[in-house]
């Protein structure tokens, strides 16, 4: 047993199976998500509890109760406000998604986080892949303990990287997590409300593959407070086909797509239908690729970033280039770049300038107030300049 870690809603460690605790939902009814018929309209729908699909459902009376609906909506708003309050000191929040498992999504999330922290920025790495937490392995923090303080759960610290994962809360890391949707959602809520992140420049959130309860939960809690998502795929045709579904999911849920990363790139795997072609077809940005090589494997095995092993390696350069791409996208999205192509080109040129003041001047000329531009733009421009210098110093 490790040190005391505080699991959701009580003082004990979390159980890896729903059945071990025999949990039921509020009012003695089965928990949300349990025994729900296929095609359920959901509690927020006008047809909730009235549709033919609802016949025989044990939750029908609950869904058809207007008072309970109001109570649920009030509770939802309270959670949303709690999340906003807890994350108010985090400047930028980014999701890392994938259409299918095994494409290296967690590896990409970890390497991006390591690269940003290498440049002395405060970075958080949140693992909400409840059933398959990989972050403790990729950061070599499997045997670390999460403790509870007056301010909430204290994340694991590795230099200036703050890490949180369900893997730290299990009695044994190898225990499977056999949970239904509501319990997963409850833990995600606690990660967002109760983890003491302090002040962060970036929070990178590693999600499960596909489009599941976890994705809907994180979207509903963060709502319009997300700065965008990064979608990871491999050159394999099956992965490319599945990532199109993820892109459609993001469009339907209004998550800004910062770009698509082609991971595990090797020329031998390239098909006629390439990732950049798919991006052009889906009208999303192709961010770049990460080549599958020994440097990347070594970094993952040592639980460090490629930049920590060898900042001059080609792998480090690829990852820094991706960081640069996403920072430029965030800068454009957050500061409301005007639609005029001439103005966009002017801003793009100023972003490449070594002087952050040039970018601020351009934004002010385009109607961006100085107060909102000053601190955030300076930080992002400084980061872009640091990355540009590193990339220029590291020829392939």
Automatic annotation (TrEMBL):
Region of interest (Disordered), residue spans: 1-47, 346-369
Amino acid composition bias (Basic and acidic residues), ranges on this chain: 9-29
GO biological process: iron-sulfur cluster assembly
Top-level taxonomic group: Eukaryota
Record Gene3D superfamilies: P-loop containing nucleotide triphosphate hydrolases
Pfam families: ParA
Protein name listed in UniProt: Cytosolic Fe-S cluster assembly factor NBP35
PROSITE patterns named in the record: MRP
Gene Ontology, cellular component aspect: cytosol
Keywords per UniProt: ATP-binding, Iron, Iron-sulfur, Metal-binding, Nucleotide-binding
HAMAP family for this protein: Mrp_NBP35
């Amino acid at each position: 047993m490790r040190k005391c870690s505080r699991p959701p809603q009580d003082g004990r460690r979390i159980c890896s199976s729903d059945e071990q605790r025999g949990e039921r939902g509020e009012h003695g009814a089965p928990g949300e998500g349990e025994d729900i018929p296929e095609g359920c309209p959901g509690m927020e729908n006008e047809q909730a509890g009235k549709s033919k699909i609802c016949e025989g459902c044990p939750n029908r009376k609950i869904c058809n109760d207007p008072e309970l609906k109001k109570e649920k909506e009030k509770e939802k708003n309270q959670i949303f406000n709690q999340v906003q309050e807890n994350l108010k000191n985090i400047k930028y929040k980014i999701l890392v998604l994938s259409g299918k498992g095994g494409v290296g999504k967690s590896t990409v999330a970890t390497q991006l986080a390591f690269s940003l922290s290498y440049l002395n920025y405060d970075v958080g790495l949140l693992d909400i892949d409840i059933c398959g937490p990989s972050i403790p392995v990729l950061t070599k923090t499997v045997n670390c303990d999460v403790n509870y303080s007056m301010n909430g759960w204290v994340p694991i610290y590795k230099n200036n990287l703050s890490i949180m994962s369900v893997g730290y809360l299990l009695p044994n890391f190898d225990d499977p997590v056999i949970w239904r949707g509501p319990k997963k959602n409850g833990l995600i809520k606690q990660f967002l409300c109760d983890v003491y992140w302090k002040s962060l420049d970036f929070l990178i959130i590693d999600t499960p593959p596909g489009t599941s309860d976890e994705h809907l939960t994180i979207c509903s809690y963060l709502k319009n407070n997300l700065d965008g998502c990064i979608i990871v795929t491999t050159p394999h045709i099956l992965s490319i086909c599945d990532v199109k579904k993820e892109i459609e999911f993001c469009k339907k849920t209004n998550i800004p797509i910062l770009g698509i990363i082609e991971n595990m790139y090797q020329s031998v795997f390239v098909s006629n239908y390439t990732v950049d072609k798919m991006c052009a077809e889906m009208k999303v940005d192709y961010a770049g690729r990460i080549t599958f090589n020994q440097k990347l494997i070594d970094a993952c095995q040592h639980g460090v970033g490629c930049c920590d092993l060898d900042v001059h390696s080609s792998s480090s350069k690829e990852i820094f280039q991706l960081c640069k791409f996403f920072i430029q996208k965030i800068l454009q999205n957050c500061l409301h770049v005007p639609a005029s192509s001439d103005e966009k080109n002017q801003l793009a040129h100023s972003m490449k300038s070594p002087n952050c003041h040039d970018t601020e001047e351009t934004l002010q000329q385009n109607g961006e107030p100085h107060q909102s531009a000053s601190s955030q733009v300076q930080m992002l421009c400084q980061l872009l300049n640091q990355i540009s210098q590193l990339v220029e110093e590291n020829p392939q």
